[in-house]
Amino acid sequence: MPLIVDIHTHVYPPAYMQMLRARKTVPYVHDPSNNADPRLIILSSDDDPSIPPDQRGRPVDSSYWDISVKLAFMRQHGINISVISLANPWLDFIEPGEAQIWAERINDDLEATCAKVNKDADPENTRPIDQKETLFAMGALPLSAPDPAVVVNEIKRLKTLPNLRGVIMGTSGLGKGLDDAALDPVWGALQETDTLLFLHPHYGLPDEAFGGPDATSRYGHVLPLALGFPLETTIAVTRMLLSGVFDRFPGLKILLAHSGGTLPFLAGRIESCILHERKFVAAGGDVQGPRRSVWDVLKTNIYLDAVVYGKPGLEAALAASGSDRLLFGTDHPFFPPLDGKDGDWPSVTTNYKAINATFESSSDTVADVLGGNAARILNLK
């Protein structure tokens, strides 16, 4: 069996859960009075007063915070290494004065968890990495801090933690999107330290785009998760491209969740619209447009996870970025089986099947996507 690395897998550390339980506004965790699993209210559409409290959001069981459950999930699905990260909404909602404290607390917690698991699995550090469950982590950033220097300092501090292999961020940046010039020090620090950024959606599109709040009661999370998240990622990265982020920071490395949303499929259309935009200086306008093509950025700065659940989507990701830039992921503990059975998770096995179907003629490429690429890119030793 090839080495299998899960680079898209989330954890809510106990301290984070305690903080969410103490909150009364989104995001927060509500504990029903009927001894059922706590409910995570993570999206604004979840916090609808017309929905009974014990039905809002989604249930969160021990798989969200108990690392032993994560390890059991890995064993069940043949996963050798998980690169865990805090799930959305990360620390975006933290009060500015507390952002640094919480970032350091969460990141130190992640490092300690990885160190303990790795030590317990191999006390003498002599077993091959494909014969044990190993954890690494993506750090969280104090983006709500009053000074971007706090974020820069945390990026640099994370490079001193042995089991941290990157950082995770949402699409709001410092609150104004990823084309915000105030983020330049952050991009500079990521480039200088050669730190991979895992970009993950959370905010989606306005409820009105899906038919208003009534659509949520009829269709649950299907529209915001299936459509809102991918489009959020696509829009965020396109804004970075248009504002020249990749021109100013050509060494920036970004892993996009969910195979880049719709970016691989729409890259040609985005490029065509850029070439025909009269506002850009290149076309005689008054705005400096991007100097690099979206195709160059996709093949130089962008990595894509393979959390796309089908061969057509994976083929688009392959064409846009290349097989050497695709990385397997599961999105655990989200999308669990709903039939109450303890079998394999369809959300995971679907990705396995898509990878094997896409690269069925090359077992070496399958092995690269399942783990070899991640081991190389993230230096997983």
From the 3D structure, determine the CATH topology.
TIM Barrel
* SS summary, helix count: 13
Shape, per Cα inertia axes: globular
Order of the strands making up the biggest sheet? 1-5-6-7-8-9-10-11
Q: What share of the residues does DSSP label as strand, in percent? A: 5-15%
Task: Give the strand tally.
Answer: 11
Provide the gyration radius in Å: 20 Å
Structural class: alpha/beta
What's the level 1 CATH class? Alpha Beta
Uncertain runs: none
Cα distance spanning the termini: 18 Å
**Averaged pLDDT:** 94
The biggest beta sheet reads: 8 strands, parallel
Question: Describe it for me?
Answer:
- Helix 3 links the parallel strand 5 and strand 6 (134-140).
- The mean pLDDT is 94.
- This protein has 13 helices and 11 strands.
- By secondary structure, the protein is an alpha/beta fold.
- It is globular and about 65 Å long.
- It has one domain: TIM Barrel (Alpha-Beta Barrel).
- This is Amidohydrolase-related domain-containing protein.
Topology:
Elements: E1 5-11, H1 14-21, E2 28-30, E3 39-41, E4 58-59, H2 67-76, E5 81-86, H3 99-121, E6 134-140, H4 148-158, E7 164-169, H5 184-192, E8 197-199, H6 213-219, H7 222-242, H8 245-248, E9 254-256, H9 263-275, H10 294-300, E10 302-305, H11 311-321, E11 326-327, H12 346-358, H13 363-377
Parallel strand pairs: 1-5, 5-6, 6-7, 7-8, 8-9, 9-10, 10-11
Antiparallel strand pairs: 2-3, 3-4
Helix pairs in contact: 3-4, 4-5, 11-12
Protein name: Amidohydrolase-related domain-containing protein
Domain Amidohydrolase-related: 145-380
Keywords: Decarboxylase, Lyase
